[in-house]
Amino acid sequence: MAIFLPTYDQTSFVSEAEHGLHQLFAALSDDFTVIHSCPWLRSTAKRIFSKEMHRYINLFRNERTNVTGEIDFIIAHPKYGLLCIEAKGGEYRQHGSKFVHVYSNNTIDPLEQVKDNAFTVINLIKERHIQCPVGYAIYLDSSSIDTTNLHPGLAPIGASKLADGILILKQHEHRIAERIVELFDFWSNTSDFAGRGDFGKEVDKFVNTVWPKEALNDSIGRKIAFDEQVWLKFDASQHRIVKACMTNEKVLVAGFAGTGKTLLASATAISHAETGRRVLYLLKNRKIAAHLAEEFSKNHLSKWIEVSTFHAYCDAVGSDGNFKSEEFATLHRYLLTRNNLEIDCLIVDEAQGLSEEEHNSLNIHFGNARKYIFTDEHQIFRAYETGVDHVRLQSIYNLDSKNSYRLSSVYRSPHCVTKRILDLIHEPNEIVNKRTDKDGKIDTYFVYDLEKSIEKWIIELLAKGARAEDIILLTHYDVKYSILDVQCSTIGAFRGMEKPIVIVLPIADTDNNTLACALGRCTTQAIILADISSFITAPHKIASIYLRSSLTAKLSVLKEYDERRDKPIFIENLIIQFGLPTYAHAKGGCDFSYSPSWRCWIVMSEKFPNTVSQLWAAFLATLTGIHIYGVNTVENWLGHALEVMPCDSCGTWTPHAYPKLNCVSCDAPSPDFAVLDDIECVRSGGNPPIPSLAQSIVNVIRLIEPSGFVAGPPHQVSTPTNDIWQMLIRIILLFHGQSLSREVQREEIDAWIAGYLTFDPDVSIQKIIGGAISGLCNTGKMTKTSERRYRFLISEEHLT
């Protein structure tokens, strides 16, 4: 049986035709190698530093060149060479060199597609110094084609006539091995290699190029290795831009992430250097500046191309080369002290990261130099740089629209990454990802142990053929992770650079723009790992709309998983697992329960929804002497300034109070369980013997509850600390006074109060009543009209 790359269990098929043909190829002998779904996107990462650069770049030729695609099948054989096959499913009829679907009338052109693929393979093997025949064929799984009258493109003329042209049809399936040999024979005898018949070394070299031995059984390793070994040719629009940079003194190039700005900037630098011009290449990122300088040096271009960060250059102009941090923001002023007449060409990459003042200084300092500005205004980190958009750059450098270009074709990033970036940012211009990996996705996970999750992912990626140097961890702030030799950087410091695999580690402060910048650094796969503990404390404050919506979508699943953990982090699960709530009941639309392990009352709300629930909390606290803590499930907290954590004395996780983080349960009293029974009796309408203050609270609750009366705006859930008697009196007065338009005497007020409140003998009744009345007068709810006479001034806003 043929050797299959990848093996069947690791293969995904996009059509029944591909799947069917893959199974047919099992009839081939083991000297055949069948490569399925071979991508030929060529990396931009190293191509710009090729010693034979101009072999690949013709600045003044805009020929059509395919830069991306996917070949359904390549069959390799040591005797015959290579055969590219395009598989099409469905019933078609021939229409010239094209085919029309019998039912939908859609027209397809598999001939053009397979020819493009074959010619790309030919170019590839020439670049790799591989010499062998390359042919092509089309498989139609369900079509009845009259092969006696085929279009010449489908029946090319060779050394011999090929029956049924280059088609593989239904009638060939029972003898598929013979048909493949027929096609191989035709193309090998038609090529310049006729009669040779020994391409074993060449075929092995090709297979190892597109599918390196270290990644034989894995798609990730294969994609990365292939991407790094095979280089990208410029497309027509990029040709035009480099040509413009050679023929114009000023050019502005704006481009979306992955469109090749640094590739073009470097090509421009090399092209000018090779004509004898001195080039200064400025960036903001130190890492990429060092990398570019090293690569130019390898190619003996350091004499002509100087690479520097903007601020390092400014400092060198105006000082002894040592940075003075206090002057960092104004270093650009050094450029105004003198002009640079030695540089012929100024190239500014990452131009969006510099301020308007800095660009003005550059323009003046290099007054006579050619200027080429490359920018992506979406990659501005607003937290620490003002940045400048392309419109202002046009104005600063006095550029018209003829010399301003926009790159719109993405080659570097996978299709799913470009799609996600477009979801994250506002891009008014059309962006087209030319890659064919449309089935990929960005994995976004909210994890509990971030370091363990990072390590798990890295181990998995390494097992699939990736190398440690293929992976980068990108953080929001400067937090260093040292895990399995994988590099770690902040998102800002890695701007303009790239890695095959990017693992983004966002925090709640990471906004859409910063997240987009991070994702745009990957060439093969992007993964987002978010530490859930930093996101659930204030979901409404999560800066990225995408991360916020992702968390919302996964919240129920996360909470369900969290419930099964030994140490949950969601407050409702902490309450259930460690608070062990009991005596659960509802009052006033609010859920109350008692935690025997924490010795406190828990209210499943941040605020009391109404006056009844507020009074009920006061009743519970008064009767039991136990604290009451509210719960905010949205921001994931219990009470105010409390954190649930282990307590050695209590032997469990309990609430601890800031700032000293002392356990609030250790010294809390335990209630008399008979009192808890009294609470249930009261809630059910009974009248057990309880203290006078507690009974007074119950009386007021029963006064206002039937009408749903609300005595004011919602209050934060907390243990009542103010004078409860005054609170009760104010509620009684507001309840009775809400519909009164006449004056009332103090004696009438006293009668209202006496009907509901029973004071202890040691309580100064008149003083408390007087205090309550004064409070209502001070807040505009009552006014004193004469001695011991009052009028209520209650409006709806006073009660809501």
Automatic annotation (TrEMBL):
The keyword Isomerase does not apply. Residues 56-137 form the NERD domain. This is DNA 3'-5' helicase II. Gene3D superfamilies: P-loop containing nucleotide triphosphate hydrolases. Keywords: Plasmid. InterPro entries: DNA_helicase_UvrD/REP, NERD, P-loop_NTPase, SLFN_3-like_DNA/RNA_helicase. Residues 251-452 form the Schlafen group 3-like DNA/RNA helicase domain. SUPFAM superfamilies: P-loop containing nucleoside triphosphate hydrolases (SSF52540). Pfam families: NERD (PF08378), SLFN-g3_helicase (PF09848). GO terms for biological process: recombinational repair. GO terms for molecular function: 3'-5' DNA helicase activity; ATP binding; DNA binding. It comes from the Bacteria. Transmembrane segments: none annotated. It comes from Cupriavidus metallidurans (strain ATCC 43123 / DSM 2839 / NBRC 102507 / CH34).
